[in-house]
Amino acid sequence: xxxxxxxxxxxxxxxxxxxxxxxxxxxxxxxxxxxxxxxxxxxxxxxxxxxxxxxxxxxxxxxxxxxxxxxxxxxxxxxxxxxxxxxxxxxxxxxxxxxxxxxxxxxxxxxxxxxxxxxxxxxxxxxxxxxxxxxxxxxxxxxxxxxxxxxxxxxxxxxxxxxxxxxxxxxxxxxxxxxxxxxxxxxxxxxxxxxxxxxxxxxxxxxxxxxxxxxxxxxxxxxxxxxxxxxxxxxxxxxxxxxxxxxxxxxxxxxxxxxxxxxxxxxxxxxxxxxxxxxxxxxxxxxxxxxxxxxxxxxxxxxxxxxxxxxxxxxxxxxxxxxxxxxxxxxxxxxxxxxxxxxxxxxxxxxxxxx
Length: 355
Hints:
The protein is α/β, with parallel strands linked by helices. It has helices at 21-35, 56-67, 79-84, 86-92, 123-137, 151-163, 183-191, 203-215, 232-238, 262-275, 281-300, 305-313, and strands at residues 2-5, 45-48, 72-74, 96-98, 116-118, 143-148, 169-175, 196-200, 223-225, 247-251, 316-318, 326-327, 337-343, 346-353. It folds into two domains: 2-121 and 262-313, Rossmann fold, CATH 3.40.50; 123-251, Response regulator (Rossmann fold, 3-Layer(aba) Sandwich). 39% of the residues lie in helices and 18% in strands. A seven-stranded mixed beta sheet has the order 7-6-8-9-10-13-14, sandwiched between helices. A five-stranded parallel beta sheet has the order 2-1-3-4-5, covered by helices on one side. Helix 1 runs parallel beside helix 11, helix 8 (203-215) runs parallel beside helix 9 and helix 11 (281-300) packs across helix 12 (305-313). It is globular and about 60 Å long. The model has no long low-confidence stretch (mean pLDDT 94). Keywords: Signal. Belongs to the leucine-binding protein family. This is Leucine-binding protein domain-containing protein.
């Protein structure tokens, strides 16, 4: 039984920004399963293939993955890659648990596939929850929006506007994904009197805006970002932990602070001891992805691709590390959003939106 991840990491990627979080989560799950006899008495093999977002390299990576004759595929983490591979995925007929948030990949969406299932909440859902949190929990009466000028930022904008209700959006500014100066965009938030700012950007631009907020004396304004706020690489990019104290994030889960489920904390400690760094929600989701596959294979009594696909389609109530109740809804296996906040350099859970 073979699982192949379409995800680069520091061991196989030329990308200097590649991280190990995702593949280490899958590796740990495979080791745990093999320790207790594998799946149906068969050991599980795991391999990872570096996968670029676009171009000929995408097809080459997919070919390398298929050459390994996988039982199922994990990833990619980029919606750009998933969209580029759509026709190949349908042709291959191999179940795939992708780790992006693009709503176009929903089963009935314009780029959906019966073979593809998402293990993250939709991007627009996370943005809507972030907005609801800003208004109903933080009490913001005026919101500002910063967003990257890509599909990710546009979908975030759609989610924000869906969650506004009667709260006015007093400033809405977009910026390039590779922006290196956001002084003007941040200034517009202050000039408009925004009482909280939703910042739907990349890890690099998020770190930049946090520092720009501090430079402009706006550290008292709640600054709310998407899931990448939960990665240690974001905090490293900010540098000074004191600048994070009013930074919030809409993450998929928060394995370092899940007070209602002590088994998650035990898993967090075990992962950190094994790999030497704190696991992100991405680590937890890839760990869960492997266990999800074991669940549906053992329930079906078969590793046939169609049996796995049908098992994922009917999945309901599976308890994992990241989500206590995974269930398929139009090709996405979770809609949970966890709102967290940095306190003394630690990302602490504030509110869980279970669905």
